[in-house]
Amino acid sequence: MPTEHWPLPGLTVRTERLELRLPTEAELHELADLAAHGVVAPGTRPLGSTWAYGTPTERARAVLRTHWRAQAGWSPEDWTLPLAVFTDGHPVGVQAVRATDFALRREVLSGSWLALPHQGRGLGTAARAAVLHLVFAGLGATDATSHCYTDNAPSLAVSRRLGYQPDGIQRDSRHGEPATTLRLRITREQWDATERPETRLTGLDACAELFGR
């Protein structure tokens, strides 16, 4: 529950289709169970981090540690907000956003995952659109970025659908093999020019200081 000293759990982003917020401890374990059952299709490697390709137990524990670590290590100069994606009252994945020196740079980087049964339904686009509303309308960001491998077609499609533009490439190592990462960017002005669903923010004023806003 949000408190005067730690109001982040009260931050909520709502659209007609979904809700983004930090999960309760019980919901976090439900999310971990989902991850244990799989977040990437067999034979594919769309994500750079290795946790998604571990055993069911490793995947579940990675989700728990990520959420605990994000809040324990939070500072206005370096923060990661791993919001759970809720539909029909249950978590189906995570839409995260992180920033370094946000008060100065006003730039964020997003990342996400959905449990396998909830992929291919447009939820990734809806969740990213909702978090863009948070960072642009709520936090006053000037830029939002996203990175994906060249063969991660779903992530690339989401970015293009929402108006992101190419922002260069970088050479990476993906699990011991060379890979090319596409960088994408959307500015506040580009976001303002796009059509988007009605989105409601609650609880932001209470925790604005935590974001370096």
UniProtKB/TrEMBL annotation:
<protein>
    <submittedName>
        <fullName>GNAT family N-acetyltransferase</fullName>
    </submittedName>
</protein>
<dbReference type="InterPro" id="IPR000182">
    <property type="entry name" value="GNAT_dom"/>
</dbReference>
<dbReference type="InterPro" id="IPR016181">
    <property type="entry name" value="Acyl_CoA_acyltransferase"/>
</dbReference>
<feature type="domain" description="N-acetyltransferase">
    <location>
        <begin position="18"/>
        <end position="189"/>
    </location>
</feature>
<dbReference type="Pfam" id="PF13302">
    <property type="entry name" value="Acetyltransf_3"/>
</dbReference>
<dbReference type="InterPro" id="IPR051908">
    <property type="entry name" value="Ribosomal_N-acetyltransferase"/>
</dbReference>
